[in-house]
TrEMBL record:
GO terms for molecular function: monooxygenase activity; oxidoreductase activity, acting on paired donors, with incorporation or reduction of molecular oxygen. PANTHER family: LUCIFERASE-LIKE MONOOXYGENASE. Residues 14-306 form the Luciferase-like domain. To bacterial alkanal monooxygenase alpha and beta chains. This is FMN-linked alkanal monooxygenase. Keywords: Monooxygenase, Oxidoreductase. Pfam families: Bac_luciferase. It comes from the Bacteria. InterPro entries: Bact_Lucif_Oxidored, CmoO-like, Luciferase-like_dom, Luciferase-like_sf. The keyword Oxidoreductase applies. One of its GO terms (cellular component) is cytosol. It comes from Modestobacter caceresii.
Length: 342
């Protein structure tokens, strides 16, 4: 890599494995966050999912508050808050408070999908008319206005404030896996994160549209694109493939709507659907450090990403932390404190 390698960040899904409790999953997320902080990753995001046996991250603001309190330098945020599930004023108040507690370290990644089934989305928002994607642009503008964006005229900010005396605002990032979100992020002058780890083949086209649509804003003078990648690194390619199997089975359960916790390595090895899981098309990066770095470099070159965000899916937390350690060393990240100590 060059002397200043492309920034790497972490998307942490707070997965619940077979035989684990919610408390176990959240303790594991803390361990991953502290490892990412120590190793020199730029940011750590947690996602919003509901009513899923394999995901403990149901309320990103609560989890972000805890993770920011037990880390020192890494930016912490949402990847993302699914805005159709929430009133914009509630989200603005939550993240304005987080920013006041941890100035300069809070990211607010916003998505327009519900992140769950329609029944759960309705239980969260309580009004079917508010679940339409047509409401999303106005909700997003209201959110920006509540954070003090002077470009936004009218809306909630005319009558409300997210916090009484803000000196800074969280970094708002638009998330997506389609041209819609890419174009909207560009038009609003926001950073854009493409969810490549979903398996979408449209990353290059969406990011080109983002850059073509981009209009500079006070928050962002030029486009800034983050690309996520499902990435699991182990000491060898063979070991990485073995560790990846539980995550493959979890993805199969999501695609077939037969949700369950992430199976253990022992369970995965004898799972009757192992062949089907291993045979699914995937853009996941799985291998030893050399292979992982080469494939991530190629992804960055293909997409023109300004930052890559990795997410590892397996049963054990030790394996997830080890993946981050191996990748950080091979990529050339600077561990926390090393630059100032030199």
């Amino acid at each position: 890599m060059s002397e200043t390698p492309l920034p790497l960040s972490v998307l942490e899904l707070a997965t619940v494995g077979s035989g684990q409790t919610t408390a176990d999953a959240l303790a594991h997320t803390v361990a991953v966050a502290q490892a990412a902080d120590r190793l020199g990753y730029r940011r750590l995001w947690v996602a919003e999912h509901h009513n899923m046996p394999a995901v403990a991250s149901t309320n990103p603001p609560v989890l972000i508050a805890h993770l920011a309190a037990v880390t020192d330098r890494i930016a912490v945020g949402s990847g993302g808050v699914m805005l159709p599930n929430h009133a914009p004023l509630v989200v603005a108040e939550q993240f304005a408070l987080l920013e006041a507690l941890h100035p300069g370290r809070i990211d607010l990644g916003i998505g327009r999908a519900p992140g769950t089934d329609q029944h759960t989305a309705l239980a969260l928002r309580r009004d079917p008319e508010l679940l339409s994607a047509e409401q999303f642009p106005q909700d997003l503008l209201d959110l920006l206005g509540l954070f003090g964006d002077q470009r936004v005229e009218g809306g909630l900010a005319e009558r409300f404030t997210a916090t009484p005396a803000a000196v800074s605002a969280p970094r708002v990032v638009l998330l997506g896996s389609s041209s819609y979100s890419a174009q909207l992020a560009g038009q609003l002058g926001l950073p854009f994160t493409f969810a490549h780890h979903f398996g979408s083949p449209h990353a290059v086209a969406a990011l080109e549209l983002y850059r073509e649509s981009f209009r500079p804003s006070d928050a962002l003078p030029r486009p800034y694109a983050v690309v996520t990648a499902s990435t699991l690194v182990a000491d060898s390619d063979e070991e990485a493939r073995r560790l990846a199997l539980p995550g493959q089975l979890m993805r199969l359960s999501i695609r077939t709507n037969r949700l369950r916790p992430v199976p253990s390595l022992v369970e995965a090895a004898t799972d009757p659907e192992r062949a089907a899981a291993e045979g699914m098309p995937s853009n996941a990066i799985v291998g030893g450090p050399e292979r992982a770095v080469a494939e991530l470099r190629q992804l960055a070159a293909n997409t023109g990403a300004d930052e890559l965000m990795v997410t590892a899916s397996t049963h054990g937390v030790a394996e997830r932390v080890r993946s981050l350690e191996l990748l950080a060393a091979a990529w050339g990240l600077t561990p926390a404190g090393q630059a100032t100590a030199a």
